[in-house]
Amino acid sequence: MFYEKYIKVLYVDLNNEKIEISHRHDLYEYLGGVGVASKLLEENIKPDLDPLDPAQPIVFAIGGATSVFPVITKTVAMFISPLTGELGESYAGGRLALTLMMAGYDAVVITGKSKRPSYLSISRNNIEIKDARAFWGINSDEVGGLIREREGGSGKRSIIRIGQAGENLVSYASVCVDTYRHFGRLGLGAVMGSKYLKAISVIGDRDMPVENFKEYFKVYQDINKKVTATEIMAKYHDAGTPINVEPLNAAGGLPTLNLKQNSFEHASDISGEAFAKNNLVRKMACTGCPVGCIHIGQFRREFDKGHEYEAISVGYDYELIFSLGTFLGIKTSDEILEIIDVVEQYGLDAMSVGVVLGWATEALEKGLVSLEDTLVPLAFGNAQGYMDAIKNIAWRKNEFYILLGQGADKASDIYGGKDFAMTFAKNEMSGYHTGYGIILGSVVGARHSHLCNGGYSLDQSMKEFDKEKLVEDIFAEEKERCMLNSLVICLFARKVYDRETILAALNSIGREITNEELTELGEKIYATKLRIKKMLGFDQSAVKLPKRLFETPSLYGELDEDTAYELIDMYVERTKSLA
Amino acid sequence: MPKVLKADGMNKCIGCFTCMLACAGVNHQNHSIAKSAIKVKTKGGLQSKFKAIVCLACDGDPACYQSCPTGALEKRKGGGVLLKKDKCIGCKKCVSSCIVGAVNFDEDKKLPIICKHCGVCTRFCPHDCLRMEEKENVL
User: Fold this and answer.
1) Residue pair A417/A366 in contact by the 8 Å Cβ criterion
2) Where are the beta strands (DSSP E) in A114-261?
């Protein structure tokens, strides 16, 4: 809690149904967010045990300036990823950060396994582990409604929950946060499932007086103006992230048909403009963000003969249009929304599941697997086949789908086809085939996500390819984002929160900190994450890249495999300065 | 002419809660949305639309005004009431008397949270959901 000058940690031991609250003055220097979470993870992980062993921790943490300034809206989750076997880190918006702050906790550490399916209820006066046996097997949307009915606190509440994929320990199962946001990547849903933890409900309504109102409100208004009255955030509200579909397609950086292609002939039918024109019915925001980037699209489903229709609304974003659209050859916005809906209900990472299905489709084409394995005819463009396959993954239908549920890397270990299993260090690729930046950034990024260091963005802004500069820029950005994620700002607002703004914001809420200290903090957090990765046996130099990356030209042009490996080696050398 | 708050653009609401953060901050110098006089909620789950529960600035003798046993609520020009804190005994009669549920209670301070129609929330709404309307002085 920033005014109290300590980090208040709630420890929940599901084995013994014991709660402990600790005021950690020693963690205060880490600000919050990923700074605090990575320390708590380091303290609690059991490197010798399986990622899904009940003893492993889940850590949630809110940031050092959570919710009291615009667009500082996220919560970080850290865990051991069942997908990669190493550092798991994922971010979600919604209402979780505000409610945790208003319930009075900076961080929550959950260990152990319940004796029966349960959910955790957190409020300012009570913490309870409640019976969820009847919720087990129920999809993510429905269970949200059931807990909403039981918990009260409307408007000041957040509910996070898993679907059947999480229950069934699919390695990239997601956690849904307040219907439209997610801890999407790296399998937090499976970790919750392994603890018999179906959901967490948080109600926050405590008293929290502003300490220095004049100074605080001045800074608040300045930031609010930057967010709402300048162009910095406009694109996120307007057509939203899907606005990237057309430029990436035109430039040849849009992964299509399991990256056999770098552009999609139907891109204009599934562009940001097309979704806005045909499907967009609403925009929403995370609590404390006046931007409202959440785009809700609607499609109509005929559920019976005789003109029986229902209207279904789901959130969409660029990454989903890539993974469940272009990557699988899906040509219409309606079909993409329909696939997203299935992914939502069962609770999977939309990016990983799309990329896994891309591999499976090609594996079937090439005869590495047969229809006996896939049960449904997986073919690019066949939306129904993919929807059936997603259910089969969530339900672990047969040996093939159990392996698919462990990721493209694992499946290709068994069936072959490693050259077109589009993963970086076992995490499925993101929607950018932009050049060396995204490859290097994804391999060396602490959680192998495009958001660790924004390599795709460097690819697009770099005037001339320069190996040293790329390594240096990715290293610098990774550290900077460690600092930003200790606040935890939404990275869409990274241009709003320059150093000067961050210092003004923190100082106005009583946090004296210097620019140099922010830099040091970023380095310290990154060093902690690298220590954890080492503890878990990760070796950057041992990562093998799928050949397909070098067969299909990128936005930058054709890429050379040796250069990519050389860049990784250079980066590994560069990080040695941190240790 | 006095002004009153109108929340008649809630069809445009994105659910950012900035109005509540601003009201709680400016009027109660508190970070908690529980202190806000305007309450934004969903009509039932996030897939439903947002609604704002606000003081409707009743004319004449508002129910809250009538219910107050100590005269802590005074009629306001343009409608609604103003709270005189020193006269309030925290009995919550005003809370139960308001049939639209617009009076909240601050359990920490033991005082009702009364909208004074200051318009701070309208200034911070990014999507034109809230506005101030001039109203005849009907006191």
Assistant:
1) yes
2) 118-123, 126-131, 157-161, 175-177, 181-183, 197-203
The 3-class secondary structure across A455-524, one letter per residue, is HHHHHHHCCCCCHHHHHHHHHHHHHHHHHHCCCCCCHHHCCCCCHHHHHHHHHHCCCCCCHHHHHHHHHH
Q: Do B16 and A285 touch (CB under 8 A)?
A: yes
The residue-averaged pLDDT of A393-421 equals 98
* Predicted complex: ipTM over 0.90: no
Q: Which of A217, A284, A294 sits opposite B25 (nearest CB)?
A: A217
To test the contact with chain B by mutation, choose from A212, A224, A236, A291 the residue with the greatest count of B C-beta atoms within 10 A, namely A224
Cβ-nearest to B31 among A180, A208, A284: A208
Write the residue in A98, A155, A179 that is nearest to B40 by C-beta. Answer: A155
Interface size between A and B, measured as CB pairs under 8 A:
87
- Two tokens at A265? 């002939």
Summarised one tens digit per residue, pLDDT across range A195-219 is 999 999 999 999 999 999 999 999 9
Contacts of B47 in chain A (CB under 8 A): 179, 313
Query: pLDDT per residue over A229-249, tens digit each?
Result: 999 999 999 999 999 999 999
Inspect the interface and report whether the beta carbons of A205 and B34 lie closer than 8 Å. Answer: yes
Nearest to B30 among A98, A208, A287 (CB): A208
DSSP B128: S
CB A188 within 8 A of CB A88: yes
The closest alpha carbon to B64, from B75, B53, B49, belongs to B75
> What are the boundaries of each domain within chain B?
7-54+118-133, 56-114
Give B96 to chain A, closest Cα distance, Å.
18
- Cβ under 8 Å to A: B residues 34-73: 34-35, 39-42, 45-47
Q: What are phi and psi of A482, to 5 degrees?
A: -60, -40
Question: Is A179 in contact with B45 (Cβ distance < 8 A)?
Answer: yes
CB atoms within 10 A of CB B117: 26
Out of B21, B45, B46, closest to residue A288 by CB = B21
From A9's Cα to the closest Cα of chain B, the distance in A is 20
Task: Please provide the distance, in angstroms rounded to a whole number, between the alpha carbons at the two ends of chain B.
Answer: 12
Give the residues across from A348 on adjacent strands: A173
Q: How far is A223 from chain B (nearest CA, A)?
A: 12
Domains contained in chain A, CATH given = 7-203 (3.60.9.10), 231-424 (1.10.569.10)
Three-state SS at A533: helix
Averaged pLDDT for residues A45-62: 98
The CA–CA distances, whole Å, from A170 to A151, A353, A367, A392, B127 equal 28, 10, 25, 11, 40
Does the structure show a pLDDT above 70 at B46?
A: no
Q: Output helix, strand, coil percentages for chain B, rounded to the nearest 5.
A: 25, 20, 55
Give the DSSP letter of residue B86: G
**Dist. CA A59–CA A79, nearest whole Å:** 6
The dotted CATH code for B56-114 is 3.30.70.20
C-alpha distances (whole Å) from A454 to each of A450, A475, A478, A492 are 6, 11, 8, 11
Q: pTM of the predicted model, to two decimals? A: 0.96
When the pLDDT of each residue in chain A is averaged and rounded to a whole number, the result is 97
